[in-house]
Amino acid sequence: MRDIAKGELLLMALLMGFSSSIAQILLIREILTLCRGNELIIGMIFSSWFLGIYWGARYRPSPVKRTLERRVLVSVILMPVLTAVSVYSSGLVQVLFPRAAGSFYSISTEVVLALLFTLPVSFFVGFFFPALVSLISGETGDKSGGLVFYAESLGSFAGGIAFSFVLVDRANPLAISSLLLSFALGIILVRGNRRLLFLAAVPLVLAIFSDGIEKKMFAYVWDRTHTGRLIQHQRTKYETVAVESSGETVTAYGDGVLIYTIPDRYEARGIFHLVQSLRQERRRMLILGSGPGSLLHNLLRADIDAISYFDTDPELWPILHPYARRFYGAHDNKKLSVPGQDLRHFLKNSRDEFDMIITVPPQPDNIMLNRFYTREFYAQCRGHLTSRGIFIAGLRGFSNYMSNDLRDYIASIYAAFSREFPVHLKTSGDTIYLIGAKQRGILPESIEALIAAYGSSAPARDNRFEREVMQNFSPDELKMFFERTQLDYFDSVIAPRARTIDANRDLKPGAYWKNIVFTAFKEQSALHFVLRNFVFIPLILLVLTGAALWDIRRKHGSVALLKGLFMYLTGFISISTMIVLILIYQNSQGIVYYRISLISALYMLGLALGGFTFNQKRILKLPVIFIAIAAALGSMLIFVVHEAGFLYWTLIPVFSFLCGALFPLLFASGGGTEYYTAASVLDSMDHFGGIAGSLLTVVLVLPLLGLQGAIALNIILSLSAWLIAVFRF
Amino acid sequence: MKHAPDYLCRREFLKRGGRSFCLFALGSAGLPAPNALSQSRPEYYVKPARMWEKLNDHRVQCLLCPNGCQIDEGERGLCRVRKNIRGSLHTLIYSRIASAHVDPIEKKPMFHFLPGSRAFSVATAGCNLTCTFCQNWELSQASPEELEAQEIAPDDLPRRAQSSGSRVIAYTYNEPTVQFEYIIDSSAVARKYGIRPIIISSGYIRPEAGRILARNLDAVKIDLKAFTEKFYSSICGGSLKAVRDNLVSIYGTGKWLEIVVLVIPTLNDSASEIRAMCAWVKKNLSADVPMHFTRFRAMYKLQNLPPTPVSTLERCRAIAREEGIRYPYIGNVPGHQWESTYCHRCEKLLIQRSGYFHVVNQIRNGSCPFCGTRIPGVWA
User: Fold this and answer.
1) Do the beta carbons of residue A384 and residue A420 sit within 8 Å?
2) Which of B164, B173, B309 sits opposite A400 (nearest CB)?
3) Cα A568 to Cα A696: distance, rounded to the nearest angstrom
C-alpha cells in the first residue's frame, strides 16, 4: 500500500467536514422528532457534539504513519455509517424500550438519548483531526494544522449549502449516508485497491432503494409504538409529519406530538357554538390550527364571506386535506383560502383585516409553537382585527387545581394576552379560551347575556350544519365554558400572578420554558429537580472551569492561563450566539432545522476565513478583536430588537470571522515553540467553552434573560475579555 | 390561599442563587423544594387515623386499602397522606381542602341521583393508585405539603355547601377514600343539614372500610378502570379483584351505585373485555346499576393519544345493552343521544341532557311518566 498523498489527505479533510456538517443537521432533525421538537435538545446536541470532538481529539495519535493513516481512513468510513446508525437508533430505541401508547419518554430520558446519539459521530470528528494534522504536517512542515482546519471548514460550508439547498427535501438520511459512504469508499479504494472499487457501488444501491426501506422502517417502529396504523410520513420544512389511521379517525402528528384528529365533530361542537354566539354579523375570519375538521367545515356553511385558514406547519394542509375530504367532502373554495404560509409571516406582510381571528395551536412544546402564544403574536392579531373584531385564543387549562408550574405557564400566556386585549372574557376547563375585543362594548356584558342572545337567535335548528354539532343543542351548553367557581379560582390564582410574571414574548419564550418545567414535573423527571434548582448547572460548570484554568496555570503558567481563558470565552460566546441565531431565525420563519445547516455553513466559512487571514497576517490586535466581537454582537442586538432581517445573514460570517481569528492569534502570541501544548490548551478550552455555552444558554440564560439578554450577556463577556486583554495580556 | 414563592423571577433567582451558593459551599446536598420552604404544616390537619393495626417495633399496617402498607415510624403509606407518627397511624389531610368547586352532579357523572342538582365538590392530596391517565394528577399524585390548601372543618363543610346552593357534597377529584376519617365525620354533619354526601372513587379500598364508608354516604360512583388485572397492575398500580370485591360490598349496603368506565383507545376498549365487564356487573351487582362509558381525552402521562372514537363508545353501549345492562350511557360527548336517559321498558326519553348544564327531567315520583315503570335511582 502506497502512502496517502497530501492532496488525498486534504480531500478526506474536506469530506469529513462535509459529512460532519450534514451529520450534525440530520441528528438535530431526527432527534427533534424523538424529543417533541423541543429546541432545548439543540443545545444538548451542541454540548454533546463538542464533548465528542473533545473526547475524540484527546486520543493522542501514535507517531507511526500507518497508524495515523488507518485512523483517518477508519474515521472517514465510519462517519456516514455512524450517522445512519445514530439517526435510526432513535427508532430502534422506541422498539427496544417501548413506552405505553400515548406517552412520551420523560424529558430527562430524551436529553440523555440526545447526548448518546450525538456522541459516536462527534467522537470521530475529533478523532480524525489530530491524526490528519500530523500526516499533513509531516508532508508540509506546517505544525499549525491550519490547512486541515481550512479544508474541513470548507467541507462544512459545502455540506451546509448542499443540505440546505439540495438535500433537505430530496433525500432521506439513509440515502445521504449511503452516498457519503460510497464517496468515502471511492476515494479510499481508488488509491488503495481498485479491484475492490465495486464495493463503493453497494451503498449506491442502498441509496436508490432507501425511500422504500426508510418508509418500511418508520412504519415498523410506528405501528409498534402507537395505537393506529401509519398511513403517511413526510418531512416538511418545519417538522416530521406522521399521519395515522385508527378506526374511522385520522390523526396527524408533528415531531411525534399529536396535532389533531379528524373527524372531530363532538370536539368541535363546543367551540363552534361559542364562536357562533360571539360572531353575530362578523363575516371575515382567520383560523389557525383547528385542522380541516368540523369547526372549519361548519363555519364554512355558516353565513360567512371568507375564511383564511392556517396551520402551525404550513405544509400540513396539503398532507391532511385529502383525508379530510373523505369525511367532509370538498370545501367551498370560494369562501376558503389556505395561503400555505407561516401565519406570523402572513400577518407581518398582509394588510387584510378580519372580523374574527381564532387560534387553537398545539401547546407550546417547542419555540416554533410558542410563537403563537406570545405578546407579539397577539399584537399582530389585534392589528389585523376590524374595529368590532374579536380574537379567540385557545390554550391548555386546568382540571380542578393548578400546581405552581401550571399556574406560571398559564399566567405567562394570560399576561401576554391581557396586555394586548385588556377587554376580554375567559372560559374554564381543560382547554381555556381567551376572548379579546379590539374595543370596549363589543363583548357581552355577562355570560347570561351571551346565552340569552344566542338562545333567542335559535341557531340550533339549522340543518346546514353537521348533525353531531347540532343535535339536542341547548344554549345552556355554553355554561360549560363559564363555570363560576372555576373562573373564580382562575381569578384568584392566575390574575394576580399575571401581574407580576414576565409575559410570554418572542424574545423571551417564557411559556415554552414553563411548559418544559411543567412537563418535567408531570413526568416526575429528574430534570425537574435540576430545573427548579437550576443554579446547580452553572455552579458545577463554574467549579469545573475554575479547576481547568487552575490546572493550566499550574502546568503551563499564567500566559497559558490567559490564553485558555480567552479561548474558553470565545467558545462560550460563539456557540451561545449560534443558538440564539438559530432561535431568532425560527422566531421569524417558524423553521428550526431547515436552515441550521446554512447558518452553520456560513459560520464555518467565517471561522475558516478568520483563521486563514490571521494565520497569514495579524491585521488586528487581540483587544481590538474582542471589541469587534462585542460590536458585532451589538449589531445583532439591534436587529433582534428591530427585526432588521437583512443584517441576519451578513453578521454570521462577520462574527465567526472574528472568532476564527482568535485561535491563530493566541497560538502565535507569547512566543515559545511548544506548539502541541499551546494547541492542546486552546483546543480543549475552546471546546470546554462550547460545552458550557450551549448548556448554559439553553437551561439558564434564555429562560432567565431571553434572546436579547443572551446577546447582551455575550457582549459583557466580550468586553470583559477585552479588559483582560488590555490590562493583563 | 397561600402561594409558594416563584422560582423563575430574577429576584428569586438571585436570592436562591446566593442561598444555593452558600449551601453548596457548605457541602449541602441540595435545596429543599420550594413548597417545603414555604408551606406551614398546621397541626390541625393531622389526626389519628382509623383502619390500621400495630406491628412490632413501632411499625403499623394500614388496613384502609388493598395496598396494606406496612409503615415504619416517620414514614408514609403509598397514598402519601397517612403517616406513622410515634407508632400510631395518622392522617395528614383532615380538613385540608386543596380544591373546592360547585359542579353539576352530571359532571361526576351521576345520572340517577338528584339530576340537575349542584354538588359542592372537595378534594385533597393523595391517592392509592398511580393511573397514568389521571385527570386530577396534580392533586392525586401530590403530598399534602405540596398543595396550597384551606381548612374546611367537618362542621363547616355543609354550611359552605348550603351557601353555594348545593344539595350534595361530593368528595371527588383525588381518591376520596384516603380521607376516610374526614368523610365519616363531615358526612354525618352534612346529613343533619339535609345535604347528601357522595364519593367519586376508584373503589380501591378494602371491603370492610368500603362498607363503613358507604353506610355514611348516600351514593357512590366507582371508576371501573378496566376489566383485566394486567391493566390495573401496569397502568394503575392496583388490582381488579380488589375493586370487584369492593363493588360487591358497596352494592350490598344498598346505597346508590353508578359505574364509570373511561374507555381508552387500545388499552381497555376491546369488545370482549367490555362484554365480560358488563356480564359481571349484571351477575354480581344488578342490571339497574348505570354504566357510563366515557370518552378519553389526552391527560397526564397519556398526552399523545387521540380521543376515543365515538363509534367505540357506541359499541360499548350496545354491548352493555346486549348483556342486559338497563342504563348504559356515553359520556364526555355533549349532545350525544346516549347521554340522555330512556325508560328501559318503553324506551321513551325520560331525562334529556346536553352537556351537564342542560337537563330536562320528566321522571315523576321515580317512575316513567309514559309506562309507569319504576326507574332505579334517587330522585328526591
Assistant:
1) no
2) B173
3) 14
Q: Choose among A253, A401, A533: nearest Cβ to B30.
A: A533
Instruction: Using only the alpha carbons of chain B, give its radius of gyration.
Output: 22
Enumerate the domain spans of chain B.
96-332
Residues in chain A within 8 Å Cβ distance of B340? 472
What CA–CA distance (Å, rounded) separates A529 from B33?
8
Distance from the B48 Cα atom to the nearest Cα atom in chain A, whole angstroms? 27
Q: Do residues A388 and A495 both lie within one domain? A: yes
- Mean pLDDT over the full length of chain A: 90
Q: Which DSSP string do the residues of A660-697 spell out, in sequence order?
A: HHHHHHHHHTT--S-HHHHHHHHHHHHHHHHHHHHHHI
DSSP A699: I
SS3 label, residue A310: strand
Q: Å from A399 to nearest chain B CA?
A: 6
> How many angstroms separate the CA atoms of A620 and A658, rounded?
10
8 A C-beta contact, residue B2 and residue A517:
no
A385-396 and B168-171 strand pairing? unpaired
Residues from chain A contacting residue B147 (CB–CB below 8 Å): 401
Q: Which of A251, A472, A500, A544 to probe the B interface (max B CBs under 10 A)?
A: A472
Residue B11, min C-alpha distance to chain A (Å): 11
Compare all CA atoms of chain A with the CA of B14 and give the residue at the minimum distance.
A535
Number of Cβ atoms within 10 Å of the Cβ of B297: 17
Helix axis angle for A404-420 and A375-383, nearest 10°, is 30
Question: A401 and B304 in contact by Cβ < 8 A?
Answer: no
The pLDDT of residue A577 is above 60:
yes
Q: Is A288 helix (H, G, I), strand (E, B) or coil?
A: strand
What per-residue confidence (pLDDT) applies to B30? 37
Instruction: Render pLDDT for B129-186 as a digit per residue (tens, 0 to 9).
Output: 999 999 999 999 999 999 999 999 999 999 999 999 999 999 999 999 999 999 999 9
Give B31's DSSP letter: P
Domain-terminating residue out of A190, A222, A254: A222
Task: Report the residue of chain A nearest B97, measured CA to CA.
Answer: A401
How far off is chain A from B222, nearest CA to CA, in Å?
A: 19
Q: Identify whether residues A30 and A75 lie together within a single domain.
A: yes
Measured CA to CA, the distance from residue A173 to residue A22 in angstroms comes to 9
> Could you say which of A101, A468, A485 has the minimum Cβ distance to residue B267?
A101
| Whether B306 and A246 lie within 8 Å, measured CB to CB | yes
Contact B138 A492 (CB under 8 A): no
Instruction: For residue range B119-131, list pLDDT tens digits in order.
Output: 999 999 999 999 9
Q: Are residues A578 and A726 part of one domain?
A: yes
Q: Answer whether residue B39 shows pLDDT above 50.
A: no
CB contact under 8 A, A270 and B334: yes
Interface mutation target, options B1, B6, B7, B8, chain A, most CBs of A under 10 Å: B8
Q: Nearest CA of chain B to the CA of A479: how many Å?
A: 7
Among the partner residues B138, B306, B352, nearest to A472 by beta-carbon distance: B352
Residue A381: CATH number of its domain: 3.40.50.150
The span from the CA of A235 to the CA of A33, in Å, is: 10
Domain boundary among A165, A189, A222: A222
Architecture of domain B96-332: Alpha-Beta Barrel (3.20)
A337, A341, A347, A349: CA torsion to nearest 10: -110
Q: pTM of the full predicted structure?
A: 0.90
Residue A718 lies in a domain: yes
| pLDDT given at position B300 | 94
Give CA–CA dist A607/A306, Å, rounded.
51
Is the interface score ipTM higher than 0.85? yes
To the nearest whole angstrom, how far is the Cα of B361 from the nearest Cα of chain A? Answer: 14
